[in-house]
Amino acid sequence: MTYIGTPTPRVDGRAKVTGSAQYAGEFTAPDLVYGSVVTSTIAKGRIARIDASQALAVEGVLDVLTHENRPKMASGDKGYNDEVAPTGSPFRPLFDDKIKFNGQPIALVLAEEWEISRFAATLVQVDYDAETHSTDLHTRIDKAYMVEKPDKPRGNAAKAHAAAAVRHEAEYYIPIEHHNPMELFASTVTWNDGGKLTVFDKTQGVQNVQRYICGIFGLKPDDVRVMSPFVGGAFGSGLRPQYQVVLAVQGALQLKRAVRLVLTRDQMYGLGYRPATIERVAIAARNDGTLDAITHEAIAMTSQYEEFSRNDTSWSALLYKSANAKYEHKLARLDVPTPSDMRAPGAATGVYALECAMDELAVALKLDPVELRLRCYSDRDQNNDLPYTSKQLKECYRKGAEAFGWAKRTPEPRSMRDGTDLVGWGMATGVWEALQMPMGNRIVLTANGHAEVSCATSDIGTGTYTIMAQVASDALGLPIDNVTVKLGDSSLPHSQVEGGSWTAASVAYAITTTADEIRRELLALAQKMPGSPLAGLKHDDVVLSDGMIVAKAAASRSVPLADAMRHGGVERIEREKLSEFKEDNKHARNTHSAIFVEVKVDEQLGVIRVTRAVNAVAAGRIINTKTAASQIMGSVVWGIGMALHEETLVDHAFGRVMNANIAEYHVPVNADVHDIKVIFVEEPDSTVNPLGIKGVGEIGIVGVAAAVANAVYHATGKRVRDLPITIDKILG
Amino acid sequence: MINFEYARARDVADAVRQISADPAATFIAGGTNLIDLMKYDVARPMRLIDITHLALKTVEETANGGLRIGALVPNSDLAYHPVVEKRYPLLSSAILAGASQQLRNMASTGGNLMQRTRCFYFYDVATPCNKREPGSGCSAINGINRINAILGTSEACIATHPSDMCVALAALEAKVHVAGPAGERAIAFAEFHRLPGDRPEVDTNLKADEIITAIELPARGFAANYSYLKIRDRLSYAFALVSVAAALELEGGRIKEARLALGGVAHKPWRNAEAEAALRGQPAKSDAFARAAEILLRDAKGFAHNAFKIDLARRAILRTLAQAANATPQIQSSKKIR
Ligand SMILES: Cc1cc2nc3c(=O)[nH]c(=O)nc-3n(C[C@H](O)[C@H](O)[C@H](O)COP(=O)(O)OP(=O)(O)OC[C@H]3O[C@@H](n4cnc5c(N)ncnc54)[C@H](O)[C@@H]3O)c2cc1C
Ligand code: SF4
Q: CATH for A17-132+181-264, among 2.40.10.340, 3.40.50.360, 3.90.1170.50, 3.40.50.300?
């Protein structure tokens, strides 16, 4: 393999840095109309009156759409369903007069210029009949109800806990966090002859958006094409179709013109988010550090109309050997938009709590935190009692600790210093799933040795274009410059939304199985040549390499693919295939990591710096060590933000996000980020899938916040369980 | 954002003439604050008077040994001006603690003085705010007030002035030169910004028809013993929770002259003559620092989310005075606190 496993530079890098890569809000049309959204300023109630007359009077304003005059939309929930929708009744933009959350879209102003639409949007007058709202999870804990969770309890956790030698029990809290991708949500919809729509959308799933739009507006799939060639970050926020795409389509249908709608930064806080979650963890152990019981309860927020929940709790006893385990997951309904997936949903939060609790247990046991994890290490998925396809977590601990210098840690809190700084070293485990999905793929090979590889997946900045090119180059034996990748277009072969870290494994498998068929065809052509050196060989006996069909047994027996195609009079070979993974209920598929962090805390002022981080990751075969390392590094930065900075501040009196901008919603800046080392631990795995790929988009963030919190404890002796860990909590 | 007219001012007299003629007009300099406020529909000027072409871009030494800084000198140029770096390093340091390089490149000296509060509610027209809409109420008092004031607050408003540069200018006792229809006048820095009282909509004592032309620094620059320390929720690109400008003149280990100003805690840079007097004549040691801190914070009053600032300010004062006394000023490009 020439490209797989190497640090291949992004094939789309040049387009991105030179600006030729076009994003959803940059496509244009001669008849383009600009939209601006008016959003609600109350959290619950109904619109008593909406008056657009002043807005309509502004020169250049073409129309103002509200629930009163919008184009026809589906009347049942089914019309609004999307592949990622949780249970419930999906939100319908501009459907009726009901207000379900603050920041809800209530009108769309359409104008000849963007500035005009934006100005006119401020002139739309709205009267509400407001109702009492509730947006604070803490006040609704007693109203929280159980959601069905897949993982069954083991043994009797309560009894085992009560009887155990050493016990730890605590409550952890993660506030609302938003994705804050750099690119604003945007859609440009062109209206073509007879009403065919092309929708340029910021999304992680073009075919999902296509089905969704067809469902709402009763359109035929052939009449709606959704394109999303480039996405400026999404992190899960683009999994579900967002309201701006509905509004932009409404505008285009109404005016029979092209419409572009780009949300403003503050409107981005009216979309999905990581739900505020209270996590209660109880762990009980014997004196030697083996676990007797784990109980993990999560109480998270959701909207009044959908039940969003992700697996927060059962990581606890998947990871560590414990005879007794119990999970509980509850939801509290609030007058807010539905939460959504955000990088490692469930795990980023649940494992944060678990790994802080493990650290607290290690302190209680007077055991080194790594040692404790080794004592309850499990080679089997504890929940389902299955072996893993591969699990090199021990190696992550070893390599990570070694690179970090963990052995020099003194266990006592406040025992390490650097001048006026207290120094703290903390660690945590990370775990995520190695998911894979059915994926379509098409390869068109031409006799000039060029291939086009395509599928409807997306590249949200993760590097999908590049890994597709790498895998195809290796499978077809072509230089990477001869491979063109197409994605982000609903007319291409089937793809699930890009999420869950499943894209790399799924798309790679789809490309190799499709390339197999190309190879079969090439061999057949080569064997038709007179005196073919490949005569008699089966398709598994040859590989494609350096533009040739080559016998595995003897490299000298080869035929240039151009010769084979020309001899057969074939200019192009096209194959399309939907590849599904073989069902395997006998293995657990997970990625793992061990993260080590150093913090320095100014003793007098409580100011925290994360001076070093090492993240050792076991995630099967790494297709591209460069883009994969970027994924992990970005995840670590995000984990630092989760630990120290990020918090969406809601004024519960108004039920409204008050820091709805990236000056006041803090994410780490360069000054907050120091030395980050990424290690990929070798993890050969021929069981998970033929290429041994597991995906790295999410594993990198899991555990990071816990490692930082644990390091802060080690530095200061202060255990802060409520994120983010700000100065007041250190000094208080 | 509303529709507005745009006009350029030729010179200071023209700027004054234009602003006097139109009560709905506003000056625009770097635009880093004003444009945001317009986008949020908080500022609704019908006319922008662009003053960026006025000849107020020089930094000149004055006859009495001070420095005169034109109102349109960009924050970056001022911070890196050789005379400022050498003689007024406190000012240079405070500027570099603020915003980001890109913003400092755009931001002007006059605009920095006139920037509005960052109180969340002030920026959100969907919420009541006395500063934005007099009489509508103060949402911050019982709302999210982590970034709000602990000193000099009123029942009408608990906003802070967010500038870093101004904290240094207060400590250095700068003068603000302004021009208006009645001619020119100078305002002592301590008199420039106001406390909110019952008129929180008025930030400063600059009249509506006046323009800032220059800032004048006296000769005394405290270049040997100074420090500016800014404590914030991330290590750069965030407004101060608390900041401290300390400037000392030492003689044989004793404090001869002291200046101490706080940022991020009040509607204006916060000074107290009594606190500074308590430092004078004392050994430059923590006892004296603690007494000064105690006096300076005596009337501090916290709200639901910001009471921690009182203790944080005390700690920051101790540290900053120690940095100043030891001639180990905080270096803004280093995130480690000295
Ligand atoms: C994201 C962000 C972060 C920031 N962080 C910080 C920080 O950490 N610390 C900090 O100190 N500052 C910070 N700032 C604020 C920045 O310093 C100010 O926005 C800037 O100094 C304003 O200068 P300007 O020239 O751009 O003013 P403009 O936006 O042009 O004007 C601001 C106001 O001043 C008036 N004005 C301008 N010049 C004059 C004059 N000569 N006479 C009379 N009135 C005048 C204008 O009419 C307007 O009302 C930040 C700003 C942003 C956007
Ligand atoms: S503190 Fe001042 S600026 Fe903030 S809401 Fe109250 S009145 Fe408005």
A: 3.90.1170.50
How does pLDDT run along chain B (338 residues), one tens digit per residue? 788 999 999 999 999 999 999 999 999 999 999 999 999 999 999 999 999 999 999 999 999 999 999 999 999 999 999 999 999 999 999 999 999 999 999 999 999 999 999 999 999 999 999 999 999 999 999 999 999 999 999 999 999 999 999 999 999 999 999 999 999 999 999 999 999 999 999 999 999 999 999 999 999 999 999 999 999 999 999 999 999 999 999 999 999 999 999 999 999 999 999 999 999 999 999 999 999 999 999 999 999 999 999 999 999 999 999 999 999 999 999 999 99
- Is B5-50 a CATH 3.30.43.10 domain? yes
Give the type of residue at A697. Answer: G
Give the class (CATH, top level) of B225-325: alpha beta
Between the CA of B236 and the centroid of ligand 2 the distance, in Å, is 25
Distances (CA, A) of A99 to A92, A222, A272, B241: 11, 34, 16, 36
The first and second tokens of residue A678, run together, are: 């990424």
For residue B5, CA distances in Å to A628, B12, B37 come to 51, 19, 16
Q: Which of A425, A283, A484 is nearest to A365 (CA)?
A: A283
Of B126, B234, B338, nearest to A666 by CB-CB distance is B234
Return the ligand number nearest the Cα of B99.
1
pTM: predicted TM-score of the whole model, two decimal places: 0.98
Residues of chain B numbered 121-160 and touching chain A (CB < 8 Å): 121, 123-124, 126-127, 139, 142-144, 146
Cβ neighbours around B65 below 10 Å, total: 12
B280 at the A interface (CB within 8 A)?
no
Residue of A nearest to B238 (CA): A663
Closest approach atom of ligand 1 to CA B95: 11
Chain A residues near residue B316 by CB distance under 8 angstroms: 605
